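User: Run a structure prediction on this.
Assistant: Running it now.
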Amino acid sequence: MADPSQLTQHIESYVDSSRPPTQQASSLDAIVSLLTNDAVTIGSLVKEMEMYLTITDDILRARGILLLGEALNRLSSKPLDNATTHSLITFFTERLADWRALRGALVGCLALMRRKSGGVVASIDAKAVAKSYLQNLQVQSLAQHDRKVCFELLECLLEHYPGAAASLGEDLIYGICEAIDGEKDPQCLMLAFHIVEVLMQLFPDPCGPISNFAGDLFGILGCYFPIHFTHPKAEDIDVRRDDLSRALMLAFSSTPLFEPFAVPLLLEKLSSSLPSAKVDSLKYLSCCTLKFGADRIAKHAGAIWSSLKDAIYSSGEELMPSFNSEPIDNSDSQKNEIAVEALALLEKVIVQNNDLFLSMIIGDEDVNVIFNNITSYKSYNEISLQSKQKLHMVGHILYVSAKASVSSCNRVFESFFPRLMEVLVLSVEKTSGACQSIESCVNSKQFNYGSLYLCTELLGACRDLFAASESLSSQFISANETCCRLLQCYSTSLTRTFSSILATCTSGPTHDEDMYLGVKGLQILATFPGGYLLLSKLTFDDILMTFISIITVDFNKTLLWKHVLKALAYIGSFIHASNEFEKASYMEIVVDKIILLASSADYDMPWPLKQTAISSISTSGQKYMLKIVLWMEEAIHANLSEFYVEGHLKSAEIIIQLFECYSNELLPWIQKNEGFEEALLQFVVNIWNQIENCMAFCIWVHEKELIDATMKFMKLAVACCSVERQNIIIHKAYSVLSSSTSLLLKESWSDIPVQWERFEPIQETDKFSTRDEWILSLFASVIIALRPQTHIPNTRIVLHILITALLKGYITAAQALGSLLNKLDLKSNGTGISGSCTLEEAIDIIFSTNLLSYFENGPFGGCGRTSNGDEISSSNLFPFAPNNELLQINVIVGLAWIGKGLLMRGHEKAKNITMVFLKCLLDCGIGTLPLKQGSSENSFKQDVHQSVMKASADAFQILMSDSELSLNRKFHAIIRPLYKQRFFSSLMPILQPLITEADSSFSRSMLYRAFAHVISDIPLIVVLNDAKKLIPLLLEGLALLCKYVLDKDVMYGLLLVLSGILTDKNGKEAVVENAHIIIKCLIELVAYPHMMLVRETAIQCLVAMSELPHTRIYPLRIQVLQAMSKALDDPKRAVRQEAVRCRQAWASIASRSLHF
């Protein structure tokens, strides 16, 4: 048991109102902890607190009762015996009459009544709580928090003790009305609306006690509609307007007794000028329609129909189809929320009262006026705007009416479809499907826009109705349904009519509205569920032939071509789950034709359009994709053979196009869908087999572009495969690599370091042969795309080959080395496989080649001496001839990718590589690099060529930038969080003094170039943390780099960083401190002649500077305005526009006029 004095201290600390809130909260926590651990019982706590629970001092009594209530609230899961529960609930019930201690009593009652086990409040006690609540509480006179607890207690009573609550009858209903009337707080209103909803469920009998209060209750609720919520308090951010509106909607629809009050109110609000009120009214009506029932809604049928028609018509042009937009579907015109909700409500009331509402729609005057005048709506452009709005209103109404149910579809079709067919001059066909048109050819003068539009709406509704109903599959659709019989009669004629429209569009001037309806009509007919029950095979095939003809011939009609291609893709995706006959027709007519189109040179269609067609059709179904993938594989293999052996340039072009299509269009879809890994594996392996079997390659100018396209595909395809399939691919690739005798692969390579003398001097003739270059490039691509779990055979030999390749200038080999080091295991997996190695062993192999040497001392924890103890110099960094500039650059690029792989996984050796780059950037004795200095330092400075220094500076771009070619998430790289930020923090203390003390202008410019690469790829928040230190460096870098034309892109990156600092509030202090030098630098950049983006961004930065304190920027006002006057004559319009903005911003700083 706990020390009684300790418990007393905690109690006294809590009830003492003069104590800090934190101390009171700590005391409560301590008491709850004692109770939880059974160091104190509830009984002993009550006995210890007896004085505070009954004392006459209002403050102490209130604090004491609140302490007991809060303690019970925190102990909801601790079991209590029934006697204790009864005693406690009785005490708190009596305290509800003590208004000075009301909060504690409410908290205690609520805590006990919410208990679900281990001491549940009895029904008789709950009823006593309710009686005391109704007798003693005036809820609306309380503070917000107390009102909220009151509503929570009332909600708990109704939900957990419905029997006890219902026994109170009218007293309970009256008390609830009184409690919620006039409530304004959002949190309390959420509870109040829910209380009304639960109350109506408690008294479901329409003749019960609730019937006498229905009008009063709705009178209280109705005042809140529509919800207008602008509550600014931070504690209410969890209560949104939509939440309040939904809670009120559920209360509105909670009982049919609200029907006489709710429906008229909601219909009245439909005439509101506020769009949100209209939308809410329609949503509430939809909810009430389902809850009130058909009989009650039927009383308001006329008013509902009239209001819905007005709401749909008032949507105006929003309901009109977008003829020049690319998508074709039945939802393309439902952009207006009011129209969407109105049509949704119309569908609900039709389903509920089919005959009643359909009779009103069919007999409606506006609907019949449209049909009576339909013959006058021949051309879309000749129809008045008002008539267009009414026509499209009727179209949407008919669509919703026909889609509601089979019976409604039959009635709508029976009433309107024959009239439309009569206007279109179509005859009834025989069931055999033979077309007996009145005229053998339909010419363009007979096209009637109005009837075609309404016809497509009815067809779309019928199609969507059948598609949405699982019971209406092909074998269950009754041919005796009116809509089915009518469609069977007219389907062939309709197909020919829509096809004639498209024929007119292809043979002459295109009318977008005719083209739209022609494509949409054929698409709907081709996607009817039920297959050939509604559409014959011949008609279905005719539709596909019409579309594919446009794809292959009329590609110069861009909009029509895009509409038709999307329609074909939609048809393919729709019938992919249909019967085999339709899929066979689609495969034969569409897929095979697309393959022929892509592979044949007889078509004049540009390749980008062919690629789009291949992508759209293949991604509409797995079987189509598989067939196109197999064709593409055959085409690539055939053309590769021709290119390898005979060097056909045309074959190279075709391969490049096919690989681009595969990589950019097909692989992203394949990656998201299952079932293609085996096909990908076979494709990749076959490419390796083909290379293995071809021993002699021709050399052509397209080779580099072709290798790049093949490598891109190889990386993306391998990256999509699982570890098991990647193991198969890498072993196959390695076997091909091993078979190349010219690469001199020998097992002894694993123990022999690369001999530098072999690459001195390096010449173009030292490059690999064409075949070896293909093998090496593709092998490196496979390495780049592997997952970390994939095993690489003979890793040591692979490392030596890649090092050899990078020294010859193969960047892909360098990327593969970086990727390999990024993914190698830190420790041996214990398999004992010959040739495998860990990360540390791989690093040792690379260092043993003298690409990089070990260092012992320095700011990064070891930099200055090689592993042999010698000082770093040209003799050990570049032990080959010092004038071999090309080889030095290759080494630097290789080290950059190796360093990137290590840096991304957070390996410490990346720091050593960084120090090599900094060493190369110093071409004069500045004595600031924290390396041991000596005579070898001077020789190093003489050895390093300027181009090597530039390569060293650009190595920082490789280290920091996100690459699409290697070391990214797509290729499964290991990426340590915040690795860029850590690198930046460790590098800047070294780089900054090097820049400051550099006495050579070229070395200084290269150091700034490296600085620009680093800072441009760092998140802005990191830069803002050191803005005061970095802004001077940024400005000096801009001033220096602007002198070199070749540095314009690097300078633009620096300027973007400066722009980010200027426009972020966290950088304001540093900007104000350096305002003068920033403005002067920006003025110089306004006239930068080599890049428009630099000038434009500099002016935008000056606009941001105009918002700084007046005293800091006013002295430079005249200089800025003079610079803007010159910028107004800039040849680029974007710069002139920004100059006008800047001039206005700076001119408004003072009230005086512009005088220069």
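Residues 1055 and 1097 are 7 Å apart (CA to CA).
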